[in-house]
Amino acid sequence: MSRRFQIVVVALAVGFTLSACGSEEGPSGAAGTTVTESPKGTKGTKGNSMDMQEAAERADGMLDAVLKKIDPEVQWAHGPTTKGSCDVTRRRTVMTIVSADRRQSFLDQVEKFWRTSDYRIKAKNDDAVFPAVYAVTKDGFGISVSIRAKGQAFFEADTPCVKESKVADSASKPNGPAYRGVYPLPSPNVRSDYWSVGAS
Asked: I want to staple 119 with a disulfide (CB 3.0 to 4.6 A). Which of 38, 97, 114, 174 is the partner?
């Protein structure tokens, strides 16, 4: 009986050892899956796999596109670029005088373009003096147009949270004076036969 008992004990010990080895491989595979999914989790947190420079270039493209669609053309200059902990904001300032009489037409053109570009209009401020339109893309970029002091129009494009990196100045060239090193930018000073109608 003693001999049989020893054999049973040895067999059970071997079985437990093999089982334990199998358990280590199981978690290891799961850990491998987790590691594979980890970038996805980070990607979800970051918004996408872009870095700040790539996201800033995408924001530039969005601003370029909407300004090119405004008809008649308005003159614009770059506003300051700002970096958050994981996001970037690009800005454009309209130097063309947009009169109160033409303000709604200006905003309507912008909103129409964003809607046809499949952006979602997130919010609107219908204030008579300082109206604004806010939109968002499917990949988490925000863009807005707002009318501020002296009727000047401002565009901003905000990136989602992305990987940290250096951000170069925008490569987009203004269609008027660049105002490099000038901040704040001047009030709107370019008259348009269309946009400035009724402005003093």
From this structure: 114
